[in-house]
Design goal:
Chain lengths: 101, 195
């Protein structure tokens, strides 16, 4: 971190910590899940969104966080109901035998 | 759970033919068990045990949920029991993959010049495989919460019941799992060549 960027971060941190209606990035983190679940009261949601407007880091973080969820769903989403080709017949037989046993 | 695939109702469970039930459902049950266990052989054991439980309990099936929802929950419960038996659900540290903050409570996040789309990721089999393997790097106790909530669409209360932990703990683990996975996936998400 350069001296200049260090000073900017100190300034940003001080502003977010002390100005009315602001939250720090660390506090923002605590609200992410409830915000995405629509569980934040409207006043807190507005504060959360205000932070998003002014903080590049949290804005990009949240975009990547949401993309991660979307990718997980796309990759591992609900399985097809049909029997895939690779379900071995001996497993089906074993299941039916176990029932009868 | 809102998956329309699971909303079929059955008037009489006893009317269901056992072999037809197995053949109709074994594919998705095996895929579900394998997603949770990440081990084909264990998944086959779990599916077999799940069917034994289901078929033995079929007479007691009251039809309050769809038969498929009922089988889904039996499979999940059996898979979780297997993970417990193997002591894989013990809480492990995930701290090294969590977001970082400086001493001013500002987030430490490198600028994103590119963020891969879902389509970018899904297009390549190699990338899908890498993402799948990366998900497997999460500790089981976190990965399972993420899968049950985000993928299998159980709500927080249901996940808490399935794992016998508090709803608060489910929320904490879910958020940490997502944040850690985001960090683990960064080399893929930031890759310009996926454009």
């Amino acid at each position: 971190m350069t001296a200049e960027s260090g000073m900017m971060r100190r300034l940003k941190g001080t502003m977010l910590r002390h100005m009315h209606g602001m939250i720090t990035c660390r506090e923002f983190e605590e609200f992410v899940l409830r915000y995405l679940d629509g569980e934040l009261p409207s006043k807190q949601a507005k504060i959360f969104e205000w932070h998003l407007r002014i903080c590049r880091e949290c804005r990009e973080y949240l975009a990547a966080y949401k993309r991660t969820i979307e990718i997980g769903i796309a990759l591992l989403g609900p399985a097809d109901e049909s029997v895939p080709d690779d379900v071995p017949e001996d497993l089906i037989t074993a299941v039916l035998d176990a029932r009868e046993g | 759970m809102t998956d329309p695939k699971r909303n079929k109702s059955f008037d009489s469970a006893t009317a269901v033919d056992s072999e037809a039930l197995v053949r109709t459902n074994i594919g998705w049950m095996l895929a579900l068990a394998e997603r949770l266990l990440r081990d084909r052989s264990l998944a086959e054991d779990v599916v077999q045990e799940s069917f034994v439980r289901a078929l033995n309990g079929l007479a007691g099936f009251e039809g309050r949920s769809s038969l498929e929802s009922w089988l889904h929950r039996i499979t999940v419960n059996t898979a979780l029991s297997k993970l417990r038996q193997l002591n894989r659900l013990a809480e492990q540290s995930i701290d090294e993959h969590l977001p970082e903050f400086d001493r001013f409570d500002c987030r430490v996040e490198l600028p994103w010049s590119h963020l891969a789309s879902v389509e970018d990721i899904m297009e390549s089999e190699e990338t899908r495989r890498r993402v799948y393997e990366t998900i497997g790097e999460l500790p089981h106790s976190y990965r399972v919460v993420l899968q049950l909530r985000d993928i299998e669409e159980y709500d927080t209360r249901e996940v808490a019941e399935l794992l016998d932990i508090s709803e608060t703990n489910v929320k904490v683990r879910l958020h940490r799992a997502r944040a850690a996975l985001k960090k683990l996936l960064e080399p893929i998400l930031r890759a310009e060549e996926l454009k």
